[in-house]
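[step 3/7] fold_predict: job queued, chain A
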Amino acid sequence: MKKINKYIVAITALLMMVSCYDGIDPITEVDSGPDLEDPTAELISPNGNVLIPFTDTEVDLDIEVLVEDDIEINNVTVTLDGNTIRTFDSFLDYRIFMEAFQYENLQLGSHTLVVDVTDTSGKTASDTLAFNLDNTYLPSVEGETFYIPFFEGLYTELISESDPIVIGTPDIVSGGYSGNTYEGATDSYLTFPIEGLFGEDTFSATFWYKINSTPDRAGILVVGNDIPENRNQGFRLFREGSATEQTIKANIGVGTAESWNDGGMIDVTAGDWVHVAFTVSATESKIYLNGELKNTTVLDSSIDWTGCTDITVGAGGETFSYWGHSSDLSLIDELKLFNKALTQAEIEDMQ
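[step 4/7] structure written:
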């Protein structure tokens, strides 16, 4: 009886196996045919020059390759500047291979990246990219002509890649709005040539500012000419007030007269960083604090640049040190100039 049961089970299993294959062709090996086509190799990434932040000197480079063959890929090699950095010889899909990886700590400069492929019949293909890794600063807003971040102990203006004339003993210290920051000192300031910085009758200046209210008044940004106590040309952005409150103000020279903008007040006791923006168009001057418009003044005429050659940063300097507007001991960070009058939306985006 036991033997009969065993026979029944075996016959049932055999019938089930036959039914599983009912209507399905058995798998048979298909001839892949002759290897007629060359393989293809493509560098997906990078696909051109690589730009990194101006504060960086190296990057972990993202690399992506795509390789294809009509029959079978044998091996893939990736080289950088003549050195092999990756080799692949095992593939899940032997006709298509895509791989992404990183090469760490690539330094600034010119580089050549190559991907080579060989198929099983010995045919080869390659793709080559010559590219430059650069950290040159690119302006973030249209019309930006000047930018000093005061990073790594440098006063360098990044768009022109030029350095100022340094008067006295200002400093670059830690604790800025973004990294390091300019710190003023008595009888100290920076000067830059203004050629190419401003529009014919428009400009803007923006920066982050933490006030040191001693002295109780100071020049911040000044452009003037060499006529003593003349305010009919250029502009003067300055502060005045007390130990607890300081007002950011501006004076604009319009040729035969001057225009005053009484600006807005900053609470010194709060100890906060404040974003200051000063814009001048052909008809108006405006002062913003933390993106909020504080005051608008209508100009009788457009700004006059006659005889103006330099901008002073951090003091009244040679042309506006009278009335006590000497050096500013405050902190100034992320200083930018523009050849246009910024909109409020553009200023708000800087917050």
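[step 5/7] annotate
The chain has two domains: 40-134, 144-348.
Residues 40-134 form a domain with the Immunoglobulin-like fold (CATH 2.60.40.10).
exit 0
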